[in-house]
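Thread title: Can someone regenerate the structure for this chain?

I was given the following input by a collaborator and told the matching structure tokens would be attached. They weren't. Posting the sequence so someone can regenerate them.
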Amino acid sequence: MHNRNFSHNSSPKPAPTGSRPTGRWVLALGTQLAALGLLASALPISPASAITIRIPRNRNPYRVCALELLDAGVGAEAAAAACADALRPRDISKCALQINRKTNISGVEALSSCRRVRRPNELATCVVNISGKSRTQPAAPLSVLDGCRRSLLPQQFAECVVGLSGRLDFPTDSLIATCLDPRGSVSQLDGRPAPTPPVELISPPAPPN
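Best answer:
Regenerated them for you:
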């Protein structure tokens, strides 16, 4: 026999309350995450990431030092010793190479001075500027190198020599000596002897009693 209550009891049960809103919420969340992913990919790379990506691997400073010294004409053994002994090997090799390329000073002589100063980069700039920009009678290359090496401020020393040479018609050797010791070498500019300082008057001794 046909059960009248069969159709009512076997009908599908309604979906639990909140099932459809939950599905919509999951769909909305997934859409937002996808949008955030697209936005992140479109944003520019941060400075830290850009530096990491764009800068190539650092070259070994000791290797570059040896290559530059060899290019300047320094022997292999001397180059190895100089690079190994330097706290900043690139500064030493760059100094010697720049002086050798832009002046008539050998790489060996340049290296000897570059290793003895605290500011090898300024030393190279000093030597190159005086050698190329001095407007008076040029000085011997080694005289320029020695003057820049002896100066505590090579860059300022070069400005002194070059600046004076543009207005004073004195040999560069004299200007180098003057800029190194302004008080003790004034007489070297015009050839006159330095004035003799006055003798201090000494009071006569007291007569004996």
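The chain has a mean pLDDT of 77.
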